Amino acid sequence: MAPSDTPSSIASKITISVVLTILILITVAGNVIVCLAVGLNRRLRSLTNCFIVSLAITDLLLGLLVLPFSAIYQLSCNWSFGQIFCNIYTSLDVMLCTASILNLFMISLDRYCAVTDPLRYPVLVTPVRVTISLVFIWVISITLSFLSIHLGWNSRNKTIGSNHTTSQCKVQVNEVYGLVDGLVTFYLPLLIMCVTYYRIFKIARDQAKRINHISSWNSATIKEHKATVTLAAVMGAFIICWFPYFTVFVYRGLRGDEAINEVIEAIVLWLGYANSALNPILYAALNRDFRTAYQQLFCCRSTSHNSRDTSLRFTDSQVSRSESRNHKGQEEKPLKLQVWSGTEVTAPQGATDR
């Protein structure tokens, strides 16, 4: 590491430090905004959003407790916080990343129940079951992190109880731990998420086709396109961020640390971290209610200044609408759309706006 003070290496370190700092700030700020939006908006306090809040809290803790130390370690290439804290740091890293992925998994199951069986959704998703699901997430996460690492289940035979040297700090992986952790944390959730989101996509597509027979072709096409883009963004971000990391993780367990290039290992690790910065956008900003809450958070001043003008405009528009309805009331009737997914459901206005 002698030539570390050359101009090119200094420039690369500055670039990396800026990128990592921006990623950490986006992760912290984005998930704080999600928590504030739910805390200050009663409309968002629902069972469905419990998993989104749990995801936001998990990613926020990752951004506060893990990512700063990961960035320092990445830039200095030396762990200087002691061996005891290294065990805590690696355990927190594994626990919060696992909890984040399992929260995404639970969100996919929740949306699958809401779309495929909307009439029974209040019976299927109850406060007790949501609580059990959240407890399940953290039990699995703690078992695969603190319990496994402190008991040496992840260590190789020669270094039981010690996951690192004095200058290095990263999770050791043996064959069994690599396969079990990769299967439970990523590959099984990925398979189920692919199935659930594919079913959701098919239902959205069928719904758009049925609307096509009633309403304009352009409106149905736009709704289908929005559903496709949303689901593609959710699954694409999840796969792009975590698939390289867990592939390298399992390969490390099978072949050892020497088989993986350190640069590749660092890239796939931070690519996985980046998913925590994308989650507030993918799972909150694409939701209409969350967008409204964000606007209320950021535009509260302008809203207070323009509230009188808005109320006057709203009153005028109501008067004009009521007059037009009196002329057209006998000619037009509200249109009810029926969506079949095993049961007959009347789609409320704006139900598919995501």
From TrEMBL:
Q: What is its main location?
A: membrane
Region Disordered: start-end pairs: 306-354
Respond yes or no to whether keyword Transmembrane helix is given for this record.
Answer: yes
Q: Name one GO cellular component term.
A: dendrite
Compositional bias, Polar residues, is annotated for 312-321
CDD domains attached here? 7tmA_Histamine_H2R (cd15051)
Decide whether keyword Lipoprotein is in the record.
yes
Name the UniProt record assigns to this protein: Histamine H2 receptor
Q: Native species of this protein?
A: Loxodonta africana
Taxonomically, what lineage is the organism? Answer: Eukaryota, Metazoa, Chordata, Craniata, Vertebrata
Annotated gene: HRH2
